[in-house]
Design goal:
The structure is a single chain. The chain is about 65% helix and about 0% strand. The protein contains eleven helices and no strands. The protein has helices at about 35-50, 55-70, 85-95, 105-120, 125-130, 135-170, 180-205, 210-230, 245-255, 260-270, 280-300.
């Protein structure tokens, strides 16, 4: 006899079995990421923060406009003789050399000091440290993004300035310089500006202020370093120490007076204030940058969030 399939009213109800499609999704276990991926994410975080500021784009717009106008300084150029590559490189980088640091750096002060001061002075440090997995990772990302932004802005500004100079010389029907000879000074300029961004970051970290580092970075290359070099030179055994100070080496890194026309060499040597060769000066300036950046990293890791 076939058993009945009708449920017995007296028996307790049996719970319905859920279908496979109605089961809740299984929870995924947290996936650990490597240090390289964590650093990449930290850099992306810093990049988005920097590009999200309106002031960044305003400053870059000003830099672009000034770079386009670089060639105007050649309007009074003597067209009877071709301009040298070294002279064009100085025009592209300095405009003018008498500022003691390239004019571009005054604009990059804002971009260079902003990432650290926003965290430590503006009160966003804890958010940053949590977002990028630690203080050391945050500082490393700030340095990497800052260096690349500074170097990229310098390279782009130099390229636009070169095009502006070439256009002006063409309009004047003047001889063009050896543009290949401009390349090496521009590469050193790009490296110098990247290092400048690291100077800005490190000083803000060490001093935990934005205004004071800006004042130091404006006044030290212009006045204070000259005075310090002159005073230290009177001490026994420190004769010539002015050649090895940070921004004296930085100026020698950018400008080789011996490559300029003879009439301009004496004036250029006075403004540079260092007898170091460009290669030696580059090594010295990069060493100062590395030491200051390391000190800033140590201090940043010790800072408390406000």
């Amino acid at each position: 006899m076939k058993p009945s399939t009708t449920p017995d009213p007296a028996s307790p109800a049996q719970p319905a079995m859920p279908s496979p499609t109605s089961l809740p999704p299984a929870r995924k276990s947290p996936v650990a990421i490597g240090s390289a991926e964590a650093f990449r994410r930290a850099c992306r975080y810093e990049w988005r923060h920097l590009t999200g500021l309106r002031s960044t784009w305003i400053l870059l717009g000003v830099v672009a406009a000034l770079s386009l106008l670089t060639g105007l300084s050649l309007l009074d150029q003597d067209t009877s003789r071709p301009i040298s590559s070294a002279a064009v490189a100085d025009i592209v980088m300095w405009t003018p050399l008498a500022t003691q640091v390239p004019a571009l750096c005054f604009f990059l002060l804002v971009l260079g000091t902003g990432p650290v001061s926003t965290d430590l002075v503006g009160g966003a440090a804890r958010t940053t440290w949590l977002a990028v997995n630690g203080r050391g990772m945050a500082y490393g990302a700030k340095c990497t993004v800052g260096f690349l932004v500074g170097a990229t802005v310098a390279a782009t500004s130099a390229l636009v300035g070169i095009l502006s100079c070439a256009t002006t010389l063409t309009v004047q029907d003047a001889g063009q310089p050896d543009w290949a000879g401009v390349l090496i000074p521009v590469l050193r300029f790009t490296l110098w500006t990247g290092c400048w961004s690291l100077f800005c970051l490190a000083l803000v970290s060490l001093i935990r202020s934005r205004i004071v580092p800006v004042l130091i970075l404006c006044m030290w290359p212009l006045i204070a370093e000259r005075l310090a070099g002159g005073a230290l030179g009177y001490l026994p055994g420190l004769e010539g120490i002015g050649n090895w100070l940070p921004f004296a080496a930085g100026r020698a890194m950018l400008t080789d007076p011996s490559a300029l026309p003879v009439d301009d060499q004496a004036f250029a040597r006075t403004l540079v204030g260092s007898d170091l060769s460009p290669a030696t000066a580059t090594a010295v300036f990069c060493l100062y940058t590395a030491l200051l950046t390391a000190a800033g990293w140590w201090k940043y890791r010790k800072q408390d969030a406000t």
